[in-house]
Amino acid sequence: MSNAVSSLFKSRFGVRIAVPAVVAVGAVGTALIYPQVVSASSPSLASETTSQVIASAVSPTAKIYSGTVVETSGLGLPSSFVNELSGSTSTSGLSGLMVQALTSGVTTNFWTNYASNLRIQVPSSTGEFDLYASSGSVWEWDSATNTATSVTLPSGTQSQTTSTTSTPPSPSTIADALLANLPAGATVTFASPQYVAGQAAYVLDLAPNDPSSLIGSAQVAVDAATGNVLGVWITPTGGSTPAFSVYYSTVSFTAPSASVYDFTVPTGATVKSVTLGGGGSTSTSTTSPSITHKTIGSGFSAVEVVTGLPQSSSSTTSSLMSSLLASGTQVTTGIGSGTIITTSVATVFIGSNGTLAFGAVPQSVMLADLGQG
Prior knowledge:
Elements lengths: L2 H11 L5 H7 L24 H9 L7 E8 L5 H10 L4 H11 L1 E8 L4 E8 L2 E8 L2 E6 L4 E6 L18 H10 L6 E10 L2 E9 L7 E9 L5 E8 L7 E9 L17 E6 L16 E5 L6 E5 L11 H8 L2 E5 L2 E7 L4 E5 L4 E4 L3 H8 L3
Parallel strand pairs: 6-12
Antiparallel strand pairs: 1-2, 1-11, 2-3, 3-4, 4-5, 5-6, 7-8, 8-9, 9-10, 10-11, 13-14, 14-18, 15-16, 16-17, 17-18
Helix pairs in contact: 2-6, 4-7
């Protein structure tokens, strides 16, 4: 994917996720692969060590050029916030997709040539939402509203080279985060091999064994032939069902036809345009606060602290944010006062002074790390 397309994803789809944030959102527990995901039969695979399979997952030997990625979510968000979220957004477009991703799940089809062309399609009961990015031309298509939107990228990104070869969010994104943050006492064993998306796969069981974390264990399916991560199933400590999962239901290792990325505005469609913020050159005011980041702890019980974020006055706080804050508990910590919110898989502190802290830890651990006053 080109740098320009990568910029688009960060702005429109909000996929700029740090490794610790992925762990915080998708906490881990003992997860059985759903029967509808895999074949009833179990493949016979060559004997490998867990270290060998992990090494192949880090450096797969083939690229997945297209496929269908299924994401499911049961993060335990506060019910009041979920109700506000569902009632304040449209069921179509990006806002509707974000609601689905946070509260239930999303199925996404994608095609890429690992250069300048990418297409993402999200089907729904009312139609489909597509994003086409081809050599600097970017379109969004929402069939539910019969609307085509031309997207202009930030100044300076159109002329950048296509040296970046990122892909859409995939199971490997989550797996890399989990494997990179395994605590010293973690154990990795094999579960029974399975067929996932038609591919024979080793299945790794990760058990972090971290008493200070909401993370219990996870299963990672790794393609035996190519080393690609085909699925990740995550459950919070003490849980019996996954709080988060992402897996391929289909994969293809063949580059798609160039025509897949072509988009023509349908006759009668409403045409809009939007220009993303950014700009090729930036300047920083000496009075603007600088954003800083630090990590407290390590492994799956790490807490990430970000300071210097923009502050919103009560008059500009959205109803969604107000609902989220109302669902939490007011606390005073060593980094300031604010609201702390705990789900089944993560705890988040939102400070009134522009501070944000998050981690896959219980509220008690978060407060101890922040130095509760």
